[in-house]
Amino acid sequence: MNVSTIQIQRFQKIVKRLMLPCILLISSTLCMTTTTLAHAERLKDLASIQGVRTNQLIGYGLVVGLDGTGDQTVQTPFTVQSIISMMQQMGVNLPPGTSLQLKNVAAVIVTSSLPAFAQPGQNLDVTVSSMGNAKSLRGGTLLMTPLKGADGQVYAMAQGSLVVGGVGASANGAQTQVNHLSVGRITAGATVERAVPSNISQNNTFNLELKDSDFSTASLVVDAVNRQFGQNTALAQNGRVIQINPPANYSRVAFLAALESLNVAPAASYAKVIVNARTGSVVMNQTVTLESCAVSHGNLTVTINTDPVISQPGALASGQTVATARSEIDIKKDPGQVVKLDSGANLSDVVKALNAIGATPQDLLAILQAMKAAGSLRAELEVI
């Protein structure tokens, strides 16, 4: 049977029309799969700029205006000494040997954090914590307190009324309390008096520090930065520090803003299982895998019942009634069944395998340690 050339061309056109939707569907499916697998994160979530950091501040002060819930001055002599020193600075001299019995004053520690690039006049939130035996800081006012850094220099001054999230009451020996009463907070309670110098705008280069040291992630960050801003812009020093050489056509602030917003797909993290021996919590990441192994698990139960036994003498006997105790000990051991756990390539398979054992969280700790020793658990086991 002969087929003309026109019929062959018509058939080819029909096949192309039918195949086009299939090709588009396959292409869109591959794109969706690639997007799902490549999970990119902003560079600001993976790394920080070296030198851009917060600094802790601390100070010692006094809280006044308490409703009889302050320090017991007999047991906290430093509170009395602080009051006497403060009053002398204000021109009030107390006679020697004066005993102060104060109830409305409490000695406190004031803490805060000085953010990067903070300038004089900026306000900071402070936390006020009792260091004596004050019952409550509710309703108190913090007197002017200098806040110092690790170098001993004063960087801020704090003062203001405390906000305490708890409440308590007592009457006739009964007492009730909701939340914590010995810690308060002052919103915008401190004013910055000194700025921390920063040389990030003076140097030609600066460093990025990855939050988690990883050579693979460092290499991926270098490739992404060089691809976006040009070659030799980024150079990895080690698994954590990446040296950045900003291009000349960018201002420093504009370049840092663009750098922080750069999307980078980090490398898979180390396989790790975190075990909390106190609470029995077990947490594992998605890279944990399991090799085939067999686990035998059984429960041992010990039950002790103690019943009193009264020994009563006869009616004409001269003995005495004696009370003794009789204990019964029952040991029950459930038969241990050997359970075969197949190898799992992802976290869900590992969870299903461990749930198949039927062990409690406390038993799971010993099982994980034994599996790690046997080489079946492909992860780092860390006990906290």
TrEMBL record:
NCBIfam families associated with the record: PRK05303.1
Species in which this protein is naturally found: Methylotenera oryzisoli
Key words, A-Z: Bacterial flagellum, Cell projection, Cilium, Flagellum, Signal
Primary role: Assembles around the rod to form the L-ring and probably protects the motor/basal body from shearing forces during rotation.
Cross-referenced InterPro entries: Flag_FlgI
Pfam families: FlgI
Residues of the signal peptide: 1-40
The keyword Signal appears for this protein: yes
Localization of this protein: Bacterial flagellum basal body
GO cellular component, one term: bacterial-type flagellum basal body, distal rod, P ring
Name of this protein: Flagellar P-ring protein
Main localization of the protein described in the UniProt heading: other
Transmembrane segments: none
GO biological process terms on file: bacterial-type flagellum-dependent cell motility
Domain of life the protein comes from: Bacteria
GO molecular function: structural molecule activity
PANTHER family found in the cross-reference section: FLAGELLAR P-RING PERIPLASMIC PROTEIN FLGI, FLAGELLAR P-RING PROTEIN
Family: Belongs to the FlgI family.
Subunit-level organization: The basal body constitutes a major portion of the flagellar organelle and consists of four rings (L,P,S, and M) mounted on a central rod.
